[in-house]
Amino acid sequence: MSARSSKQSGSDDPPAIDVNVGLLFVSLAAVCIGITFLILELRKYDWTMAS
After folding, report:
1. Among 18, 31, 45, 46, whose Cα sits 20 to 30 Å from the Cα of 10?
2. How far apart are CA 32 and CA 35, in angstroms?
3. Half-sphere exposure (CA, 13 Å, Cβ side) for 5?
């Protein structure tokens, strides 16, 4: 049996944060920073959001 299926069914430990979750947060931060810089660059050309 695999390690996951051989655990006791009564233990409800939350999953551990691993390197993949950390990389997800890094990529989310990079996207947010990229959007911020894009908006700052577009404001130089009098760009406004459509409403």
Report:
1. 18
2. 5
3. 2
Tokens 């911020």 locate to 36
CA separation (Å) from 2 to 5, 7, 8?
5, 9, 12
Which residue in this structure is represented by tokens 């990529």?
27
Measure the CA–CA gap between 28 and 41, rounded to whole angstroms: 20
Q: How far is CA 28 from CA 15, 16, 18, 34, 46, in A?
A: 20, 19, 16, 10, 27
Q: What is the pLDDT of residues 4-34, one digit of tens each?
A: 655 566 678 888 889 999 999 999 999 999 9
Residue type, position 6, single letter: S
What per-residue confidence (pLDDT) applies to 37? 96
* Model pTM score: 0.61
